Write the structure tokens for this entry.
Amino acid sequence: ARAWKGFVAPARWQIGWMGDSVVSEWSDTEEVVMLRTLSTLPSQLRTNEYLSAQAYCDACESFGVIGGYLWVSFRAPEDSSDYDADLPSNMKNKVFVHNLRAWNYPYGRGTE
């Protein structure tokens, strides 16, 4: 078993660990948002700060599924919860991009 643990942003959102209010939904316009580490409590977020951001991508294809959302998040081991303290060094303080494939509730199609 690996020493570090955690769920990527779209998985956290799908299972209800992250509400819509902490996810910025990008549109076709340019918008700058501040991403905080995924373990940040929603009450600690300031204006224009989010745990993740998503943008719909109708041209994204993954495992034969076309469409879905691109998710962007930030993982840092130096947060107050130590949730990602054992994250491998090559994954520390990085921005992660995941493709949440098109899906129908309640069954997800997975991420990559």
In short: The beta strands are 23-25, 34-35, 49-50, 52-56, 61-62, 65-66, 68-75, 94-101.
